[in-house]
């Protein structure tokens, strides 16, 4: 294939302009409410060794739920398939923070990309890592090849201050014995992972791992087995977009993950990894311009899986 | 009416004997698991100024959920009907600790005698009292006319150590803004109220208040208005027995409240207040011998409301 | 006691006047929507052999869900306690037509006064009666001592035409094997029982049975055992008012049952049976003036059970 | 690509042998319970104009839920995107016949491949087609290029006789006004579509349509727009396997659909369509050997989308 990605990104940028004012910035985390709602950046790392980018692609933003893919990867790299005893791999079909399903399923979250599932993954990491927060940073930095990636403590504090739903989830998981460590320690880790800040460039570079069958794009080192990478990609495909997994699957057709900070990352195996950021969200919690950009990308490149 | 209550209690004691080994002591609170399962006491305070008693009626036990009637009374005595904005008065039709209904009803517990409702009442008391725990003790002691009533700190600690479900409820209520104070402070108060220890004698004496239209039986002082006493009695009638409200209403037919410590208290307005204690519980969490004793009592006295 | 009931009814009539325009007539059954919304009747049958009445107390209306107490009584008179294997006796805590709880409880309705429970009772009657509809009429006529009681076929047809929720309930009960007969036959019987028409006078006369421990007030014949009458009264007390059982228990404090036709009937054991009718309903489906009338009645007579 | 599909099918056949006795034939539809549980057939239609097949690939079986993709296609070909007003496109996260979600979502099924959704699609077809059952047959026959495809009336009757859950769903949808036609007519159509019988060869030939962007593989005629074909493929990808969508997405990674008759069909856009049949099902209702065969196929061909 011979695709001029830069030209395509330029076209996308023109075509999304009319939708710039649509949607609302997430305001339940006070630190996020202060972001300039009109930011927009996109970065695409291609297997031809090139990065194509545009807009605010070098600006840090809060990756929020996108971090769930990273903690899952770290957990899976350490304990393999045993993790599926504690969290399932099926789409949830419910708003992302519902407690109902968790009670119905006796404390086993539907998948690791809803909050309850990510909290279980956080608990797993606390059990197996010596310095969980540092070790997570080290893991993400090494995948990305960038030592500047860090938590934003203000955002972590801000999440804690309003994170009652997540605290309820964590205590409920504990009551079902699917949290093994101190609940506050687990939540502290979880709120920190959500506060991770990255640029579009860093994010798309990091997710090349999932487009490359689990091997580091730079060193070639196999950080995740091919099989478990496929598993994580399948989970992103079916569970990565809150209650819009089906819609995203149709419109974009790639495995990916969004966050309420306005970021979305997606991969096309053996072709590229792409990250886009725009803070205004649709009612289901996904970035309006991010969704549109990725839809245009797969339409223009013809690289949809369907 | 001319009823020989002592003779009736003696008869009851003979008739329940065959059922003595039935049921299991609650073991999820470790401090309660150590109780001698074969304890049995009953105390009936009559409006003829007599107490009739039998067995271990002078032994302290953990009143647990029975305390919910006392905290509700204290809250209602302070703020009247405004409390119904924060907690409803309808039976729940669900196991006592279910989170599902709470989510469905957007954070308004069905009634003040389920855990979620009692936690809201605890929050209310923390908001309006200077020294919530001390003030609760003072209130209960004054109704009972007995300064020896106290919390059992070991039991309170024991509840805290395993109270993840209640912590989940409290955080969820907080997320719906139906808890106004610090969640840990609310839970600490709640776990303390559950740890209140009383004897059957003290408990039946205390509940004379509800049989006496809200007036202190001794001083005649109106501690609760007649109207609000009727409200509390109606709530006990329809919501006092977890998922056996209908069964208790049929078998006993009196307003009452049970606790997992094995206590049950019930009242017949203008006639008597009765407390019974026996630690073995049926599968729905109510004392086996307690239920049987009260059923026999209303059958033998003919004082059923139906 | 020496109570002038007629005077009390007159007072009630004056005091409810200001609330006459409140509430809405049920309109989902087209035949009911045509009723004059300002009708009001009340009839009280006392154990001193008197009837006290007022307003439209001799006018027929659709008793609707009140019929559930009558079919339950007929079923219980035939098969006794075995019926509780097929329907529970606990309050439902949910809107009266919810399917959720039924699925959660694997096809056993919470109680016989919600639609699902009454449909199971209808199925039971079809299994044990030779001519179910005729036999039901004969049973009700004999209790009331009045051969003029009948179904309204237009209302029955009208219910059928919009009874999709009830049809869904019936098929679901069938899928759990808790309906044994042809679903359409069961629904036809159910829609007919709901269409029963009675006057306030007839209704209060009929319910004397429940105030009289199951014995016919006229002949003294024991139609229902004392024990099963107590059971039915307890069920009315805790489950008789859709999602206002707790509210009614507080405000009125008597066992009773309401219907969307605007009728309410209640009993005070060994004292009286009372029926009131006024078509305008509150948002929970109970007659506005009916609720107020009964509240005033127990307040004025002092005959509340609490 | 130069893949020897026949060799791969032979290998698959050898490798699945050890699992032949696993799973159980669906027995809730009596007609299906009589099938020889050890049947196994597979047929793969490739874009190189070849069919590769093995085992009982020419034997008719009941396609059951696979028919939902065909009725959806027919509906979408007639009314386009307007159908999404009546049925959503998101995974359900619940067992395929749950009524709970339907009530929670006010009568809008989560997607067209769960029973509730397919019943709505059936209702849509009844509204827009002159002879719904004949027109459906004509549509399927024309896609497949085979006039021998037909319903099995015995199976349709058998489904009707035990289809109480589906009848409950249909009546509930009607109560939410999301069924417009007579409920029995809708169910009759639905039970007939489920009774469609096809061979693996016919099924894989038919589904070439979805691998070919909606154009007939033979005539090139565009039967479905490219865009709506992508939509249907995305729905198969996220919703095609009851509560194993995530598992199938990982293990196979293709859009597809299974039925309780033991059939599974899947497509790889622009490469192939494959149908496999083996009646023994795993506990989630998907064919044991069918799942294993497709997993081996994508592993051996390297044609996984992840």
Structural class determined from secondary elements of chain A: alpha+beta
CATH-level-2 architecture of the largest domain in chain A? 3-Layer(aba) Sandwich
Q: Name the biggest interface.
A: A-D, 32 and 32 residues
Computed over alpha carbons, the radius of gyration of chain A is: 18 Å
Q: Briefly note the CATH topology name of the largest domain in chain A.
A: Beta-lactamase
- Terminal residue distance of chain A: 17 Å
Number of strands of chain A: 7
CATH uppermost class of the largest domain in chain A: Alpha Beta
Domains of chain A, number:
2
Number of discrete helical segments of chain A: 13
Average the pLDDT over all residues of chain A and give the rounded result: 92
**H/E element order of chain A:** HHEEEHHHHHHHEHHHEEEH
The helix content of chain A is: 40-55%
Shape of chain A: globular
Strand order of the largest sheet of chain A: 2-1-7-6-5
Oligomer: homotetramer
pLDDT below 50 for ≥5 consecutive residues: which ranges of chain A? none
Features:
Beta-lactamase; 306 residues; homotetramer; alpha+beta; 2 domains; 7 strands; two-stranded antiparallel ribbon; 5-stranded antiparallel β-sheet
Written description of the protein model:
The first copy, chain A, has helices at 5-16, 30-33, 67-79, 100-104, 115-128, 132-144, 153-162, 164-175, 183-194, 200-211, 226-239, 245-251, 288-301; strands at 41-46, 51-55, 61-62, 197-198, 256-258, 263-268, 272-277. By secondary structure, chain A is an alpha+beta fold. Chain A has 2 domains: 5-62 and 198-301, 3-Layer(aba) Sandwich (Beta-lactamase); 65-194, 3-Layer(aba) Sandwich (Beta-lactamase), CATH 3.40.710.10. Chains in contact: A-B, A-D, B-C, C-D. The interface between C and D is medium-sized, with 15 and 16 residues.
